[in-house]
Amino acid sequence: MLDILSIIPGKKKHTPSGWYSFNAPCCTNRGHNADRRGRGGIIFDDEQNWSYNCFNCHFKAGFQLGKQLTKHTRLLLSWCGLDEDHINKISFESFSKRDVLEIRQKTIKALVANFPRKSLNDTSVRIDSREYSHKPYIDYLINRGLDPTAYPYHVDEHATRPGIIIPYFYNNEIVGHTCRFIDGKKPKYISDQAPGYVFNIDAQKSNWTSCIFVEGQLDALSIGGCAYMGSNISDEQALLINRLHRTIIVVPDQDSSGLQVCDRALELGYKVSIPQWDSDVKDVNDAVRKYGKIITLMSIFQHATSSKIKVELARKRLK
Predict the structure, then answer these.
(1) What is the pLDDT of residues 182-219, one digit of tens each?
(2) What pTM, to 2 d.p., does this model score?
(3) How far apart are CA 175 and CA 282, in angstroms?
(4) What total number of domains does the chain contain?
(5) Whether residue 228 is found in the same domain as residue 312
(6) Which residues lie closer than 8 Å to 194 by C-beta, 6 or more apart?
(7) pLDDT tens digits for 143-156?
(8) Are 235 and 295 found together in one domain?
(9) CA distance linking residue 145 with residue 130, whole number of Å
(10) Which of 59, 99, 158, 221 is deepest in the core (most CB within 10 A)?
(11) Is 210 found in the same domain as 189?
């Protein structure tokens, strides 16, 4: 409907705080000196809604799907070169989707409400390097390229199968968990999670400009990313991760089932990265184990793209 960044004139810079900064077009139109210091800024509330602030002349505007354009937003768009007919069309289309805004707000509220606080089993304890019985679990994590002390991994010593418990956190509360069994038998995982949950979202830093979105929990922990924990990304998960207000880079597992998420990622406006890893590397955790974390991250950012053609070529290379 309205790609605000595409009509803002001049160069734009994405800052660590999430703002897009540029020379503000409002200053000269309001009787001030021209801005040459990049004092104009836009920050997105989600994929559609945004706020504009000029830190030079203090002009403010914004856009919210489902509402008509305000006087200040109309002025900003006109200063960016849009004519009145185009502005009126945007305002009408936005207002015609007012039901979408109400549904989205209800969905987000329901989403958060669906993450009730939970507890791990009373017999589960945090993995401790001083406990000899925990050595197999620590060795497993180290072999997977993971630091056993970097996440509150647990173990249930009374369980019938040996497994590592990975708690799920949301707003610093435990809201579920998964158990990764290490005995080589199936199933490999047993999980307790609410629909719409995104693993490791609590660990994302406010000054990061990107979030790497992967399939598995161990993949996410390997590079500090988030995991959708399945074959696809649900609408609820998209709503939740979009609230980070940053570039989302989806890195699928490099097999036929994992690659199915690519179309969904592009549909959501995310970037997709399919690095040219060796044939024995099927996911992010494999890459970290073989190449190390830094090289893996560099390859992910290098191959990130929103081009459908490039993604399709990369997928064909793996078939």
Answers:
(1) 999 999 999 998 888 999 999 999 889 899 999 999 99
(2) 0.69
(3) 29
(4) 3
(5) yes
(6) 114, 115, 116, 175, 176
(7) 999 999 999 999 99
(8) yes
(9) 20
(10) 221
(11) no
